[in-house]
Amino acid sequence: MKDFLSTLGIKEKNAGTSTGVNYIENTSTNLITSHTPSDGSEIASVYETSKEDYEQVVKASQEAFKEWRMMPAPQRGEIVRQIGLKLREYKEPLGKLVSYEMGKIYQEGLGEVQEMIDICDFAVGQSRMLYGKTMHSERPQHRMYEQWHPLGPVGIISAFNFPVAVYSWNAMIAAICGDTVIWKGSEKTPLCSVAVQNIIGEVLKENDVPEGVFGMITGGREVGEWMTTDGRIPLISATGSIPMGKQVGKTVAARLGKTILELGGNNAIIISKEADLEMAIRAIVFGAVGTAGQRCTSTRRLIIHEDVYDELKDRLVNIYKSINIGDPLDSDTLVGPLIDQDAVDAMQNALKKVEAEGGSVVCGGDVLENLEGHYVKPAICEVENHYEIVQHETFAPILYLIKYSELDEAIELHNGVVQGLSSSMFTLNMREMERFLSHAGSDCGIANINIGTSGAEIGGAFGGEKETGGGRESGSDAWKAYMRRQTNTINWGDELPLAQGIEFDV
Ligand code: NAD
User: Fold this and answer.
1) What's the pLDDT tens digit per position in 377-431?
2) In sequence order, what are the residues at sequence separation of 6 or more whose Cβ sits closer than 8 angstroms to the Cβ of residue 46?
């Protein structure tokens, strides 16, 4: 018996756990069954949202918006503050569920919940800082300023690999902005969505806030498409693969809606001959094998100076031999399972392609058939950057080694992919680091020096360029994407001068 399931209001086995939305009458009979990737066994089922249920959720969201948008922003912040407190109470069970349903190790499951708590704290402060500018009018006795208004119901579509944190980056910021949200989490991790919904539901009930402020639907691509085609939802924030983002971007653009797209990465670290290799190795291993290579920011390519290439390769191969792979809830485990059999197959195919294109698998890559579940050994490969397979994000722990001799060449290789999410350089040379961060350096949304590509803090704006989609979420001024800007001009004089000095006498 997994106590954390009952603590989070989830009934084990085929009990048809509620959709997490208590304010609608559930009409669906289709069940989505969630299995743990740790041994493939069934955890519980949830109802897939039907079209009728969807209509009810959207209507509840629209209704709740009328009330929520008129609540002063700091009071909305107070609700989010209480959600942050409630998440602190449930941090352990929710961290365990994330680990059990998604397969990341428990420490990372806890980290995800901590990210939710952090973004709640950030959003509380932001709720008092939704600043607009004041401008000087060119006309006498006129005042100009801009203000930010909420958009309405915001659709959030999220991926399996961050089943709770990415939702909160969007939902907590949208909420303090005065928007309501409708969340469709991944069909691979529906129980995480239900658990979060139950936790937030307690706060809403205690404060008499309409449940429609935080709505939720359950299902896969088809259910997601109901939102992307729905003109009542002005903004869709979608996290997932590049093919999914291209589809969502096109569909929402066709109705001139807004999007925030957070898509795949192909993240690299440049290792200079002047790098602190001890630090670099720790960052590389965490970035490449952490979450079993299933982070959007996972380190996929290492671009290594020829002088340190052999040493670094040997040391990494040695470390890879001793990595503990197994049950994600076991405290000795560093690498848990992949999400499902498709992910295992995709990794095996990628390794075959590496060899077919002339590269080699230096170590790892085996499927651990002796374990129930979807376990693989992280792999290291020697490749060239232009290989077709290296140009793609394979969502598994494969680390590609690429050699360079000149810094310009390294940066060209680094930027020579279609994705542009996270990047890093290890060097103690000030000129090299500044070059990497300059206009002629990394073309990614995130560029780090002497830390790895994964493990971003919520205070910065998170997102990437090129086919990663261009969206920004979480900290900095990402809140502006959840609001509409309005420019206001007030004439407090008794004349009606026109802008640009135009004369128009009637
Ligand atoms: P996915 O693209 O298969 O699915 C993501 C979500 O989109 C799911 O909820 C799915 O049901 C939904 N969906 C799929 N097609 C849709 C469509 N046409 N219309 C509406 N919704 C649709 O991705 P995944 O396998 O769950 O996650 C892994 C991918 O997500 C990787 O590529 C990873 O890099 C990316 N990711 C990016 C970020 C980021 O912030 N940039 C964060 C996490 C994951």
Assistant:
1) 999 999 999 999 999 999 999 999 999 999 999 999 999 999 999 999 999 999 9
2) 16, 17, 18, 19, 20, 31, 32, 34, 190, 191, 194, 218
- C-alpha 397/C-alpha 407 separation (Å) is 27
Q: What stretch(es) of the chain map to CATH 3.40.605.10?
A: 3-263+469-486
Q: How far is the CA of 376 from the centre of ligand 1 (A)?
A: 22
267-457 maps to which CATH number? 3.40.309.10
Does 262 participate in catalysis according to the annotation? yes
- For CATH 3.40.309.10, the residue range(s) in the chain are 267-457
Enumerate residues lining ligand 1, CB below 6 A.
157-162, 166, 184, 186-187, 220-221, 224-225, 228, 239-241, 244, 247-248, 262-265, 296, 393, 395, 421, 464, 468
β-strand partners of 449: 425
Query: Would you state the CATH architecture of domain 3-263+469-486?
Result: 3-Layer(aba) Sandwich (3.40)
The protein residue with its alpha carbon nearest to ligand 1, atom 20, reads 224
H/E/C letters for each residue in 425-484?
EECCCHHHHHHHHCCCCCCCCEEEECCCCCCCCCCCEECCEECCCCCCEECCCHHHHHEE
The contacts found for 42-45 with CB under 8 angstroms, 24 or more apart, are: 42/13, 42/14, 43/2, 43/5, 43/10, 43/12, 43/100, 43/101, 43/191, 44/5, 44/10, 44/11, 44/12, 44/13, 44/14, 44/15, 44/17, 44/191, 45/13, 45/14, 45/15, 45/16, 45/17
- Whether 172 and 154 have beta carbons less than 8 Å apart is answered as no
Distance 350 CA to ligand 1 centre (A): 20
In what helix (H) or strand (E) does residue 157 lie, and over which residues does it extend? strand 153-157
Q: Indicate the average pLDDT of the chain.
A: 95
Structure tokens at 26: 């559930």
- pTM comes to 0.97
Nearest alpha carbon, ligand 1 atom 23: 240
| 112 among known catalytic residues | no
221 burial (CB, 10 Å; 0-12 / 13-18 / 19+) is: middle
Q: 209: helix, coil or strand?
A: coil
- Can you say whether the dihedral through the CA atoms of 339, 344, 349, 352 is positive or negative? positive
In 10 A of CB 500, how many CB atoms? Answer: 6
